[in-house]
Amino acid sequence: MVLMVGCILRGTHSVEQAISYVTTEKRAFICYPHCNESIDKIFEHLGATSIQEFSTCSTQAIDNLMDIANKIDSDITAYQFTDACRGLFLKSRKFPSNL
């Protein structure tokens, strides 16, 4: 889900493509360069440069991302989304994009 929100923000996927990906692909792996690009775009959108800044983002900033996420999956909660963002951030820093 977070990857798809990042792809929408980057302009590489439409909401319809994201819905299709989330509902049909259910991939068990993550393309780490896309992981990095997506989380970087989300952090840029929020004006955050670190996980600490992400944790203090305004509710309104997160709500703007939730509007996108809810277009893909109306059942996702803000807690699930922010928790997934944190996890993706940690993975993206563990595996540099030049691998």
How would you describe this protein?
Residues 1-95 form the Lin-15A/B-like domain. This is Lin-15A/B-like domain-containing protein. The protein has helices at residues 2-10, 15-25, 32-46, 51-55, 59-72, 78-94. With 99 residues, the protein is mainly alpha-helical. Helix 1 packs antiparallel against helix 2 (15-25) and helix 1 (2-10) packs across helix 3. The radius of gyration is 13 Å and the shape is globular. The model has no long low-confidence stretch (mean pLDDT 82).
Note the main attributes of this structure.
99 residues, mainly alpha
Helicity level: over 70%
Q: What Rg, in angstroms, do the CA atoms define?
A: 13 Å
Structural class: mainly alpha
Task: Categorize the overall geometry.
Answer: globular
SS elements, strand count: 0
Share of residues in strands:
under 5%
Low-confidence stretches: none
Helix count, per DSSP?
6
Query: Largest sheet, described in full?
Result: none
Order of helices and strands: HHHHHH
Terminal residue distance: 23 Å
Mean pLDDT value: 82
Question: What is the domain total for the residues?
Answer: 1
